């Protein structure tokens, strides 16, 4: 690990903490944030924890013009016995560097990033909410900051971490959602940036999502950009299917995000003796299986919701009602187990959690 | 036109202007910038010209996370008789709104934007360089500013314009460039954001461009994202071919940017009685035409270089040497005519220029 002196400037004007039961996602931030700077000749340097507050950038800063940026999303959980746990954070920093590689951003030291994240969360421990279903959302991100309109990689960057307490994703318990299968707009394509967590992948979906919502859908299921036939992800989550007793998920093909919840579900199911088949999955074949009465459960997986059961898929005017709009047994068991491990209620036999001491 | 009171706060600490012959692209900015704010309940409001300087944003501002942003690029030129001309600026604002539509950003009033741009440039008239080949580069852009990590359109935006004096793109006159035909990475695909000028489209090309440069190429020619067969654009320019006496350019298919120089070249050639065929163009068919000795000229078109002759195309290990690495007659004539119109040396029979009074 590269050694750096972490400077901590404590916030003397602490904010009031929000009520824990109904915190809207991603709008409340803690008292501190983390910043580390990059410069070609110095590398990553000057790591600091400072009071949360506005950052000042030149209007020509590259982030505003050419989108050279990557991010991560993870959570810290309070256990009933007062500990604070992270869930596989090393996987997030690994993926951050993979995203950075695709966007020509210099890698960060993953061990250092985790060490400094722990220090930040330790300082903000009181911000980790305790009500069931709540957590502290963690957003690490890197932005390109050269004041330069020439198209090309920046020579300066800021790596930052901000923290946001978040309420339960499904306040009344898991809720199956209605999903539109998108066959006009494209999220990503082979050779593009689909496997990277980078800003441009998200806003490019807004138009499709708005159209889907107008028709009563909660989100969209993206198909591949080439044939508009193969299933990729739902919204910003990965997707799983239980068909005729077997579990399937689209294989990582370069345009699908390598979800950490996705990976954990595959490992967990394997540990239960349930194999998961990762393969190219055609939407028309799914529809055939549906018509044959074989589609038993469908669920999205991601950091925000952990498991999001899908109750209905709308594809080219055809409706697939999944498990009578009810939560499947497997979906519920996976949700209970993963959230249980995350919050210390279920034994962490797979060694996934990292405690903040 | 909606009426707004434009507030002007003059910069009292004016900067020195750079020497005009060797200004690097996009690194020097003028004394003032333009900002207009958007808020859902107010619409676009508070247009202001203020001293050029840093902007302050919440670290959770959506621009840093989800890439909801669009931009434009255009230029102002000094004529020999001391006038300042814009080149088809109304087309840029039209395209800005098209880009915004794709990115779910509220449209701006195009007439108002042009009127305010004129006032900004009038104030910065001394910053428009006079040396042949130089100009004042204009960068209008919109960024999403809600401090909110929920994925979705922002409710607040900033529309800004910054200005940068730029030197001659080819200081020694036009220079044919060597281009790599990219068959691994993808810039854009049908249903994606390729037709929009949005940040994510640019940084997604850095890795391919870096690989191409390592092998001695100046830039890449993008192929379609589906078959990796059909020609799209070169770098961030459109591309034209003169084959066996005829002029061709890839048709606008939803993943190619609708270039204003591209449009102007088609109109100019038509006005000369030279038809331009817009069609889907396969790289293997281009190679066949090359082997038959029929590829006479290739050139990129864009605001930065106007015309960029291509001297060599490298595709899957095969070299296509175009016109013996020399500037084609048509490329030179188009360059001379368009830059002539832009700088008032050639009569503007097509009514393209807009004078700043």
Automatic annotation (TrEMBL), chains A, B:
InterPro entries: Aminotrans_IV, Aminotrans_IV_CS, Aminotransferase-like, B_amino_transII, BCAT-like_C, BCAT-like_N, BCAT_family. The modification N6-(pyridoxal phosphate)lysine is found at residue 197. Pathway: Amino-acid biosynthesis; L-valine biosynthesis; L-valine from pyruvate: step 4/4; Amino-acid biosynthesis; L-leucine biosynthesis; L-leucine from 3-methyl-2-oxobutanoate: step 4/4; Amino-acid biosynthesis; L-isoleucine biosynthesis; L-isoleucine from 2-oxobutanoate: step 4/4. Its cofactor is pyridoxal 5'-phosphate. Gene3D superfamilies: 3.30.470.10, D-amino Acid Aminotransferase, subunit A, domain 2. One of its GO terms (molecular function) is L-isoleucine-2-oxoglutarate transaminase activity. Its EC number is 2.6.1.42. Keywords: Amino-acid biosynthesis, Aminotransferase, Branched-chain amino acid biosynthesis, Pyridoxal phosphate, Transferase. It catalyses: L-isoleucine + 2-oxoglutarate = (S)-3-methyl-2-oxopentanoate + L-glutamate; L-leucine + 2-oxoglutarate = 4-methyl-2-oxopentanoate + L-glutamate; L-valine + 2-oxoglutarate = 3-methyl-2-oxobutanoate + L-glutamate. GO terms for biological process: isoleucine biosynthetic process; L-leucine biosynthetic process; L-valine biosynthetic process. Pfam families: Aminotran_4 (PF01063). Belongs to the class-IV pyridoxal-phosphate-dependent aminotransferase family. This is Branched-chain-amino-acid aminotransferase.
